[in-house]
Target: ChrR-like cupin domain-containing protein
Amino acid sequence: MHQKEFTSLPPRPKPYASVEDALPWYSWCEPNTKWPSDDSVITHEYIEEVVFLEGGLRDLTLQQEWGPGAYAYRLPGMKHGPYEASEKGCLEFVRCVGVRMEAKDDVNS
Model:
């Protein structure tokens, strides 16, 4: 990862931008949109850290809302979502870290 000094807030990526289309580590959800669109619960095989920069999300399972500054740290396999973006949408900084299989087994034990 390249070093970067503080800068102003980055421009918003396209809605649901792919890794190739978005600035690294930023994600944007349009106002009032659901994610994922099929209302399924999300899991993945990596560690994920998320910080909301603008707007926020409502967790449709937990019936809880989070706004700017909210932080999540998710281990592999942690269930979360589905979500609905706030009226202002949601710009988030996301950091994903791969996990070695042996380390993943230790975490889930």
